[in-house]
Write a structure and sequence with these properties.
Layout: H1 9-24, E1 35-40, E2 46-53, E3 59-65, H2 71-99, H3 107-118, E4 127-129, H4 130-141, E5 152-156, H5 171-176, E6 182-184, E7 196-199, E8 206-212, E9 219-223, E10 228-233, H6 236-240, E11 243-250, E12 253-260, H7 262-273, H8 281-300, H9 304-309, H10 317-331, H11 336-343
Helix pairs in contact: 1-2, 7-8, 7-10, 8-10, 8-11, 10-11
């Protein structure tokens, strides 16, 4: 008996169609698709404007082109109308997937990822990790699992990002293109540069920038191409070594992102569950996510877990072995193929 059921083939085919659309988008709407309007200013200059709702639910309007009637302005308006129509065509399909248990991101997360996509963060090699990556991986695998809730968006960089045109502004300015007012989250030591960003005010919505550590100590490192600092975590390099593109779904649309491959994600979750102190709720969440992915991979992609295990850093093996004890009951009988690969 499967620990978590699979979505019907018809829905996974539908997801693949939306994923293909997302991967083909050069630019993603940061907010709802909205509509194109004609406006006239005090000087009676008529122009095109794009009206939409942002991540916080506020109605926004931005200038597109003018004057109305000029070939350049009309072409810009037609192009925008085409993009709006294509995105709106996908909206009922995404709502259907959401009703059937596919994972959908919230509006703030989607707007943040859209802003990063539009700045080529994922195309340059940046990754989405953490729970939002888990949701995207579940969707791609066609696995139905309990939805997750998180106020954190975890981003990672395994090595220098290969931007065609490197950003000229600090990373926080890229995040603000989401329409959300992000501020740097101060460290306990005021001399240490910030590696996290939060929405201004009482909100707990937060962005964390991560990079691999050389050893097992948590620290920080400069990310010069982003004009930012990142928190360094042990064994993160293992997770980031292999990645794939997929899409994050939201009520507003779909956005292409780069995420780790599922087998490395699962094994890394088992390792870090033993690195956390005190067996806290985050450790349990790590193990739960790992169990779901291991079960699915053992049944649908035999050999994937075994291949990923061959690459586990030697220093991480002891943590992985400890974690196996805590997931044995969930996997050994229900998903023997996954357990055999993990325990061999």
């Amino acid at each position: 008996m499967a620990t978590y059921p699979l979505h019907p083939a018809s829905l996974t085919t539908l997801f693949s169609e939306i994923e293909a659309f997302a991967l083909a988008q050069e630019t993603v709407f940061v907010g709802t698709p909205g509509s194109v309007l004609r406006r006239r200013n005090a000087s009676r200059f008529e122009f095109y404007a794009h009206q939409f709702y942002d991540a916080l639910g506020a109605k926004r309007e931005r200038y597109v082109a003018g004057p109305v009637g000029s070939s350049e302005a009309d072409a810009a308006a037609d192009e925008l109308n085409t993009r709006i129509a294509e995105t709106k065509r996908m909206a009922p399909l995404i709502r259907l997937l959401g009703r059937e248990g596919f994972q959908l991101a919230d509006s703030r997360t989607f707007a943040t990822l859209a802003a990063l996509h539009n700045h080529s963060f994922f195309a340059a090699g940046g990754l989405l990790v953490g729970s939002h990556a888990y949701g995207a991986i579940l969707n791609r695998l066609g696995v139905r699992a309990p939805s997750y809730r998180t106020e954190d968006v975890d981003l990672a960089r395994g090595g220098p990002l290969a931007f065609v045109s490197p950003p000229k502004h600090p990373f926080v300015e890229i995040l603000r293109d989401s329409g959300i007012e992000f501020v740097e989250l101060p460290q306990l030591d005021p001399r240490t540069p910030a590696t996290s960003y939060k929405q201004r005010g009482r909100s707990t919505f937060q962005i964390e920038l991560l990079a691999p550590a050389r050893g097992e100590e948590i620290g920080s490192i400069a990310i010069p191409e982003l004009h930012a600092q990142a928190t360094t975590l042990p064994f993160l390099g293992y997770l980031l070594k292999e990645s794939q593109f997929t899409t994050v779904l939201a009520q507003e649309g779909s956005c292409a992102v780069r995420v780790p491959i599922p087998e490395r994600f699962a094994i890394h979750k088992l390792i870090v569950s033993e690195l956390r102190h005190g067996g806290d709720s985050k450790s349990q969440k790590d193990r739960t996510q790992a169990i779901v992915l291991c079960a699915a991979l053992g049944d649908s992609r035999p050999g994937a877990l075994a291949a990923a295990l061959d690459e586990v850093p030697r220093r991480a093996v002891k943590y992985f072995r400890r974690a196996l004890v805590s997931v044995r009951e969930a996997l050994e009988k229900s998903h023997p193929r996954a357990w055999e690969e993990l325990s061999s």
